Amino acid sequence: MNSSGNGAGPVTGVTVKNITVRDIGESYAKIEGQEGALITNLTFENVYMPGSTTPATTLQEMNFTDRAYYGGVTILPVQNPEPAPAPRTNLARLHPAVISSNDNAVDSAPLAFDGNLSTRAGTKRAVDPGWLQVDLGSMKTINEVHLYWDTAYGKSYQIQISGNGTDWTLVYTTDGKGGLEKITFNPVQTRYVRMYGTERATQYGYSLREFEVYGP
Ligand SMILES: [Ca+2]
């Protein structure tokens, strides 16, 4: 209500969030309800005053010099919010790949490195072991591999690395569950990365929709 007795009743549940005050202006701000018409449950979150690099923590700091008939003020400074992590680069994407065998005459190896989940590489059915390797082009530090399995996944397989494409070192061995498997290990230097399947989950081969490689 205003001083003439007109207007709506209590004001409640107001949130002011994520604003930067550019100019103090000519008049100070006020929070002023009236007797019987309080302003309540006010929330100020992440309000930056002119020239400040941190959010305001008090009403005084926000230049609310005139305050009357109010209650329930919450001030939530969200200081230094976490920056979004930079997107990581799939070091294997569009790189040369070799597969141990194919289930038909077409070389399917590149299809696990084309960035497209609707295409897949697959080894010859009913054959163990089956493997798929990629050449990163030069020595890179890696610590994570993402395998997007097709229905024909590896029940047991290894992740192997090699600097020359001939001599392989085991960095991870696991019982596969299919679907998307995110495999992490201590950072290693390598040029070639291989999924080496030792036991198939189905009567088919080892089939990957995408095979991604990441560094730390
Ligand atoms: Ca693909």
UniProtKB/TrEMBL annotation:
PROSITE patterns: FA58C_3. Residues 84-216 form the F5/8 type C domain. InterPro entries: FA58C (IPR000421), Galactose-bd-like_sf (IPR008979), Pectin_lyase_fold/virulence (IPR011050). It comes from the Bacteria. SUPFAM superfamilies: Galactose-binding domain-like, Pectin lyase-like. This is F5/8 type C domain-containing protein. It comes from Paenibacillus graminis. The lineage of its organism: Bacteria, Bacillati, Bacillota, Bacilli, Bacillales.
